[in-house]
Each structure stands twice: as C-alpha cells, then as structure tokens.
Amino acid sequence: MSAHSPAACTNHLDREAIGICVECRSRVCSECVTKVDGINYCVACLAILADRGAKRARAESRPTSGALAGLSALALVVIATLMTWGLLEVALPGGG
C-alpha cells in the first residue's frame, strides 16, 4: 500500500484532499485551499493571482497615453492663447 492515496492533498500526503485547484489542478486539503467566489485555489496559484491583480491595479491607476496627449494638447492651447493675448497687448496698447 502506498503512503500517498489518490485523494491525498498535494502538500500534505497524510491529509484527505477536499478540492482541486482550478488553476493547476492539484488536490488540496482544507488547510491548503482558499475559496474565492466559491472557486478553489491552492496557495501557490492564489499568490500568482494576487500578484496579477496588484500589477493590474497599478497599471489602471497610471494615466493612459491618450489622457497625457489630451492634457498636453490643452496645455499647448492655453499657452498659445496667453502668448497671443500678450503680444496683442504689446502691439495694440489700450485696445480694450
């Protein structure tokens, strides 16, 4: 008889597996499993998912290149307007 039965936890061979990780398909016991929205994850896969989530959150918090381009264009219009107004004031004093 082998020390490791087909229903044993991948990490704890002396414990019965109560679920299977949906990512890596390893068998997990009650100590090794974490359920997220009713779905089983092993410790290693949960750490990978958490890292992906943190990277995604950091990426979403940064302004996109489109937003930066829009802000740059707006700043350019404001600067051009102020420079034109200043030149008109110098060229045509008391015009208003």
Explain this structure:
This protein has 96 residues and is mainly alpha-helical. It has one domain. The protein has two helices and four strands. It has helices at residues 43-61, 65-91; strands at residues 19-20, 27-28, 34-36, 39-41. The strands form two sheets. The chain has a two-stranded antiparallel ribbon. Strands 3-4 form a two-stranded antiparallel ribbon. A hairpin with a 6-residue loop joins strand 1 and strand 2. The chain is rod-shaped, with a radius of gyration of 31 Å. The termini are far apart. The model has no long low-confidence stretch (mean pLDDT 85).
Number of helices: 2
Structural class, please? Answer: mainly alpha
As a percent range, the share of strand residues is: 5-15%
Number of E-state strands: 4
Which value, in Å, is the CA radius of gyration? 31 Å
Quaternary state, please? single chain
Total of domains = 1
